Amino acid sequence: MDWTDLVTALGLAIALEGLAYAAFPEPMRRALAALSVQPEQALRMAGLVALAAGVFIVWLVRG
Predict the structure, then answer these.
(1) Cβ neighbours of residue 13 under 8 Å, at least 6 residues apart?
(2) pLDDT tens-digit map of 7-55
(3) How far is CA 41 from the centre of its chain?
(4) Angle CA(51)–CA(46)–CA(58) in degrees, nearest 5?
(5) How big is the chain by its Cα radius of gyration, in Å?
């Protein structure tokens, strides 16, 4: 894997996160407030699901 790809992916993730906050600030605020009261185990499971989905998508695209 080339470092350029990793840095590009990181930049894209940051840009998409910024877009969400710029386009929908109040819904993002509500989403963060809702996340703050979730149990740690639920957040961990959601993170693992997101991680698995991301790896799967990269695997599909990159072979």
Answers:
(1) none
(2) 999 999 999 999 999 999 999 999 999 999 999 999 999 999 999 999 9
(3) 18
(4) 20
(5) 15
Neighbours of 28 (CB within 10 A): 14
Two structure tokens written together for 29: 């605020």
Cα 18 to Cα 4, 15, 25, 39, 52: the distances in Å are: 21, 5, 10, 26, 23
Contact assessment for residue 20 and residue 28, using Cβ atoms and an 8 Å cutoff: yes
Provide DSSP, 3-62.
HHHHHHHHHHHHHHHHHHHHH-HHHHHHHHHHHHTS-HHHHHHHHHHHHHHHHHHHHHHH
| Residues 6 or more apart whose Cβ sits within 8 Å of residue 20 | 28
Structure tokens at 8: 């590009």
